[in-house]
Write a structure and sequence with these properties.
The complex is a heterodimer.
Chain A: E1 4-9, H1 15-24, E2 28-33, E3 44-49, E4 75-78, H2 80-87, E5 92-106, E6 108-109, E7 123-135, E8 140-145, E9 153-156, E10 161-164, H3 176-187, H4 196-211, E11 215-218, H5 224-237
Parallel strand pairs in A: 1-2, 1-3, 3-4, 4-10
Antiparallel strand pairs in A: 5-7, 6-8, 8-9, 9-10
Chain B: H1 2-6, H2 17-24, H3 30-51, E1 55-59, H4 64-70, E2 96-98, H5 106-115, H6 120-123, H7 143-162, E3 171-185, E4 188-201, E5 209-210, H8 215-228, E6 232-237
Parallel strand pairs in B: 1-2, 4-6
Antiparallel strand pairs in B: 3-4, 4-5
The chains are: A alpha/beta, B alpha/beta.
Chain lengths: ~240, ~250
């Protein structure tokens, strides 16, 4: 089974952007809503918890059961995802005195942390949150802070679970891709072999198995999507298309 | 068609121009035009697909953003866009669906297309609306109007390529307006069509700014269009951003 990073979506506008960034690293990743886990977990190398328009203090906020993954696979919580890790472990998340939107700088970075290793002290990060983490259980170690946010980055001792308050996926976090690479490559151990060539090879193989000798019809509009679909099918089943 | 044949695809070409134009005759309302085109597309596809025996699967070019939308946090959206190729295919066809691109973003589809040997010029074309030029001819459609707009568009796009501007804009096209204006050509007064040129910059099509094309280029292309396309005596340039305007006019 293909190596996969799973993104659990809590409804953030940036979720698709996280997927794009991970795929830029030639690692396959798939987005699922928090309440709809994929059935097939084979090939799963790590999980990213997205941000959310909800606050963990909301009654109807997303509270997924992470027992199947947390502590077993590497987990990275982003913004709401990080707050949820704290909240669900008995920590305290509360509205910030000042709402934090926009640029901030990581004045403190623990270089021993595998997630942040290689990022430069003072590097700019993009914040977009109204809640903030006030208190976390003792096993949550702070690994990065800004002048306003103590828990800008943390790791849970004894497991590969990380949380960050800022958004690594946006343009305004220039070292964000470095952080995501640390996560998917160094921590999750993905091989970065998901390339267009590999996609073509494995998709053609899958299509052959799925379609056998069946005939397929396709409406070819002349656009890019239907043309590429036609080329893939042509390679897999030839004249049966 | 030639391109697809060269790629050795098993492709059937259907010339349904008359069917589309007959259905659209005298229709000026943009929403009606879109609906008629969508329905005609399905009718034509259905007619042709029926001629082929023993089909078990329908392939679609659905891509990842559509898939995510359909399984979003809010639950399956009630208003998911049906793919314009096959939107609302008749129930009785009962085909199984295969969507090999349903895990790819648009730029990844392009990369896969290149890997499969599709021409980069083709892969990196500007977006083109499903209903085609029908939404770039304001008002009702006639063969003459389509011919005229194709000629104008051809000169405009060729000019952009020649001046190395084509890949610097997200999308560029011409629009035929339902307006005639007075002009003077030689010693004669004319009363002919107005075309608008549009070019926008954007990263995703969600927001867009009008492209600040060089005046020298605009002067050249405007001159070319008026001199070469009979029936056009005025060219204007659209300087609206999205929002509040949209990229296309209809």
């Amino acid at each position: 089974m293909q190596e996969t990073i799973l993104i659990l979506d809590f409804g953030s506008q940036y979720t698709q952007l996280i997927a794009r960034r991970v795929r830029e690293l030639n690692v396959f990743c798939d987005i699922h809503p928090y309440n709809n886990f994929p059935k097939d977990l084979s090939g799963l190398k790590g999980v990213i918890l997205s941000g959310s328009p909800f606050s963990v203090r909301d009654q109807n906020a997303p509270f997924p059961d992470l027992a199947g993954i947390k502590g077993k696979l590497p987990v990275l919580g982003v913004c709401y995802g990080a707050q949820y890790l704290v909240h669900s472990s008995g920590g305290e998340v509360a509205p910030s005195k000042i709402r934090e939107y926009g640029r901030a700088n990581l004045g403190f970075i623990d270089q021993r942390c595998r997630l942040l290793r290689g990022m430069s002290t003072g590097t700019q990060v993009w914040m977009s949150h109204a809640d903030t983490i006030l208190k976390a259980p003792a096993s949550f170690k702070i690994t990065g802070s800004t002048s306003d946010v103590e828990y800008a980055a943390f790791k849970i001792e004894g497991e590969e679970t990380y949380g960050i308050q800022f958004h690594p996926e946006v343009y305004h976090t220039p070292e964000g891709l470095h952080l995501l690479k640390n996560f998917v490559v160094n921590i999750c151990g993905c091989k970065q072999d998901w390339t267009p060539e590999l996609f073509v090879e494995s998709t053609v193989k899958e299509l052959k198995a799925k379609l056998g000798n069946d005939k397929v019809v396709l409406g070819l509009s002349g656009g890019v999507d239907s043309s590429v679909t036609a080329m893939l099918l042509n390679r897999a089943i030839g004249k049966n298309l | 068609m030639e391109r697809y044949k060269k790629l050795e695809l098993n492709v059937i070409g259907v010339d349904a121009r008359d069917q589309f134009l007959d259905a659209l005759k005298g229709v000026a309302d943009p929403e009606k035009k879109r609906k008629i085109i969508g329905k005609t597309f399905i009718d034509v596809f259905d007619q042709e697909a029926h001629k082929i025996q023993g089909i078990a699967w329908l392939a679609q070019g659905t891509i990842y953003p559509d898939v995510i939308e359909s399984r979003s946090v809010k639950g399956p959206s009630a208003t998911i866009k049906s793919h314009h190729n096959v939107g609302g295919l008749p129930e009785y066809m009962k085909l199984k669906i295969v969507e090999p691109l349903n895990f790819l973003f648009k730029d990844e589809v392009r990369k896969v297309g290149l890997t499969l040997g599709l021409d980069p010029e083709f892969i990196n074309r500007h977006p083109f609306p499903g209903p085609g030029l029908a939404v770039r001819i304001i008002g009702d459609l006639t063969r003459e109007k389509i011919r005229l707009l194709q000629d104008v568009d051809d000169i405009y796009i060729a000019g952009l390529r020649k001046y190395d501007l084509y890949h610097k804009v997200w999308q560029a096209f011409a629009v035929l307006l339902p307006v005639q204006s007075v002009g003077v050509m030689g010693d004669e007064r004319t009363y002919e069509n107005v075309v608008a040129l549009r070019a926008v910059t954007s990263t995703d099509g969600m927001t867009a700014d009008w492209a600040h094309l060089p005046h020298e280029f605009l002067a050249k292309v405007s001159n070319d269009i008026i001199n070469k396309v009979k029936g056009v005596n005025r060219v204007v340039y659209d300087i609206s951003s999205k929002p509040p305007a949209t990229i296309e006019w209809e």
